[in-house]
Amino acid sequence: MIRDPASFQILLDTIARLVREKLIPREREVDEIPADIMAEMRRMGLFGLTIPEAYGGLGLTTEEEALTSMALCEASPVFRSIMGTNNGIGGMGIVIDGTEAQKKKYLPRLATGEIIGSFALTEPSSGSDAGALTTRAEKKGDHYIVNGAKRYITNAPEASIFTLMARTDVQSKDASGVSAFIVERDSPGLTVGKPDRKMGQRGSHTADVIFENVRVPAENVIGGVEGMGFKTAMKVLDRARLNIASVCTGVAQRCLNEALAYAKERKQFGKAIADFQLVQAMLADSKTEIYAARSMVLEAARKRDTGANITMEASCCKLFASEMVGRVADRAVQIHGGAGYMQEYAIERLYRDVRLFRIFEGTTQIQQLVIARHMLREA
Ligand code: COS
User: What predicted TM-score, i.e. pTM, was given to this entire model?
Assistant: First the structure.
């Protein structure tokens, strides 16, 4: 649903200008997002795209968010990643299931980008099997004492708050004993490890987060109810997976832009390589797949905006779009030939960046499992 097409178009045009004039020219610097770009993204309200207007955000609908992510991700996806957790996995647990007091306390500062939120689910021994997590939160009076370790946590080095999934029913072994908490970064006993050294998306930082006897006030249990944390995490991931599909669509479009520009310029056998049908086939297949991803993402987003459940559709979109962008980036490298393997060309970096999309926020195989489970249940 697009609430006001005219003013939404202004937002999209502003993002397109930011991408063209500021982000793409600075992409090579993005081992660290430059401070002036952070300030500009804050000023534009990009940290609060999905946070309700009542708490200082722009309150975008799912369809609006999808279109915004596609536009933003024609620049390196690391620019989106720094505000992606506030809009997605780092803020959405509070938006979806938080109490009024939790929303009032944290959402306005997430919306302005004054603080960064992060999502702490994955552990050294529990990745795809998220329900098996072992971080414990034991109740002692009006506090919980948290012990455990989280791994590959996006934006942990920058985060001021974590949405933490921990086991409150220590007898349980599955998802039913998990609760979600808001944990403040400066809590004694909480340490963030060194940023991980990654294949791509190097300006988007991930790290371990260690909890050693961290005291968390009972009022920080998201929604105030124990045992609901896994469901909160899954609801957050429904929206996040759909958004990653939008991100993939935007990055795929960028890869295709790079390939098309190169194919028009590069001459072999006396003419531009774009004139050769075998190159045209790679361009055409990529265009077709991007169009398919865009169409399915927007359809699922509109369905979510009606209030319907889109768990299965979000997984379909994440699966297709993340695999699709891998194929598109691969063809774009192929069209560049030897140049595509060289760091001077953006496609070399984008090719490494997109590999992550098939893994995080649920691997392709987890999306297949979610889709098949829904099919079987409905049958
Ligand atoms: N929305 C709301 N509730 C959900 C849900 C969703 N999308 N998905 C599952 N649930 C509920 C189930 O209904 C079930 O509740 P009941 O016991 O009351 O019926 C509960 O959560 C447990 O669900 P399930 O039995 O399906 O849990 P599993 O342990 O089998 O795990 C998978 C399901 C594998 C799909 C889940 O662990 C997963 O998504 N893993 C990947 C994690 C991931 O994406 N990690 C990436 C890092 S985070 S960036």
Answer: 0.97
